User: What shape does this take?
Amino acid sequence: MRDDQWLKNKLDEIWSRFFSDIPKSDKVIIHFGRASRDRLGSIRLVNNTFSEIRINGLLKDPEVPEYVCEAVVAHELTHYVHGFGSNRPQLYRYPHRGGIVAREMINRGLGAVHYAAKDWTNSNWSTLYSSREKITHQRDE
Ligand SMILES: [Zn+2]
Assistant: This one.
């Protein structure tokens, strides 16, 4: 079962394995948000005190491979490292421009996960989203 505790464990695991040079902070919280078509995850700094990582609720679905969840968590953690949505010094002007997230993930040994997740979402995401959305709407009626 993928719940917030599962996510927290994923974050800890990814942090220890691939981001061990970055001091671990208890000021990062992570949880599932609502399902959305457009965003797999986000990170923001709350009250200048802690970082909140929100993961698309549809990633709880067992049809989404676990490596996709891992890639999304690692992507948000990369933003954290770059100083976006975090109290760390900002290393770049823009969070995505110039492929800096992919480059960071590749340098940290997360390239295969990054590209596999990209392939999977490119081929499956919108179908999965639409099928789940239908179910939700039927339930609402
Ligand atoms: Zn991003």
Remarks:
- The longest strand covers residues 41-46.
- The longest helix spans residues 111-140.
- The chain is about 50% helix and 10% strand.
- The pocket of zinc ion is lined by residues 75, 79, 95-96, 101 (CB under 6 Å).
